[in-house]
Every structure is written in structure tokens, then in C-alpha cells.
Task: inverse folding
């Protein structure tokens, strides 16, 4: 069985003085990421490895999760930034089978699209939302449309 944890980056600053790639997290985004990381820890939902977009807001989100979950440094992959659904599926299909549980920190709209593609479910995926998808497969390479099931879903608390 393979498990995929999809995490959308936390709330970022919307300021024209920043290039999109360099937008930092807002204070509320940092709090949301910490809250969600604690929630994962409490639920014992801890991936073996995290992959992340290298965009500042996404990398910062991933760093918070690795700190709270005591994971190794996340693996940055530029393909996740501005990815299409197909790009994310290809990335997932290329994960090393030595990992049974992988986390992916990325951006919308691709995150919502990949959840729908892999599970057939339409899932609202606001900033710092998390979805756990399980597959009855032994190889990441075999994962395709409709093969997954959303087993856990959560969004940050409302302020």
C-alpha cells in the first residue's frame, strides 16, 4: 500500500514588491502551518519523506512540517512550482518505491486537480489544507486515475 499526503502551502503575502516565487508566508500562514503540523503529529500521520516546490512560501511551509514531524530536510523539486496535474502525477509515479508514505507540498490549482484525478473526489483545497490519499498498490509507478481514496482531510481552524 502507498500513501500520499498532499499539503497546500500556507497563506502567503500578496504584495507586488515580491516576485511570485519569493512571496513569504504571512504570520497567519506560519500559525496555520504549525497548527496543521501539530494536528498531523497528534493523528500520527507522518510521511517518510517530503517533496516541495522551491518557491519561498511552499518551502517555508515544508520546513515547518519537517521541524514539527522530525523529518529530514524536504526534497525541493522545481517541477512542483506552477505544475499541471499531469506534471504532479508524473512526479508521483517517479517516487522511489522504498518509500510507502510520501508527502508533497505544492500549489493550487494542481493540488485540487491531482486529488480529483487520483480519487474522483472534488475537494476544496484552501491554503494549508491537507489530504491523505491511500492506494492499494505496491508501486508508485502504477498509480493512475481513480485508484486512490481520500482517507483523511483537514483544513486550518477558522480564526
Result:
Amino acid at each position: 500500500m502507498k500513501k500520499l499526503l498532499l499539503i497546500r502551502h500556507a497563506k502567503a503575502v500578496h504584495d507586488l514588491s515580491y516576485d511570485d516565487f519569493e512571496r513569504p508566508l504571512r504570520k497567519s500562514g506560519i500559525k496555520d502551518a504549525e497548527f496543521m503540523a501539530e494536528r498531523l503529529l497528534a493523528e500520527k500521520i507522518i510521511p517518510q519523506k517530503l517533496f516541495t516546490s522551491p518557491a519561498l512560501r511552499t518551502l517555508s511551509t515544508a520546513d515547518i512540517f519537517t521541524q514539527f514531524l522530525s523529518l529530514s530536510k524536504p526534497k525541493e523539486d522545481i517541477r512542483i512550482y506552477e505544475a499541471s496535474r499531469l506534471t504532479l502525477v508524473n512526479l508521483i509515479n517517479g517516487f522511489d518505491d522504498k518509500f510507502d508514505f510520501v508527502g508533497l507540498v505544492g500549489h493550487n490549482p494542481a493540488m485540487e486537480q491531482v486529488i480529483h484525478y487520483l480519487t474522483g473526489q472534488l475537494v476544496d483545497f484552501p491554503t494549508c489544507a491537507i489530504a491523505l490519499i491511500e492506494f492499494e498498490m505496491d508501486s508508485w509507478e502504477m498509480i493512475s486515475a481513480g485508484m486512490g481514496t481520500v482517507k483523511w482531510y483537514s483544513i486550518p481552524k477558522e480564526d
Remarks:
- Residues 27-43 form the longest helix (17 residues).
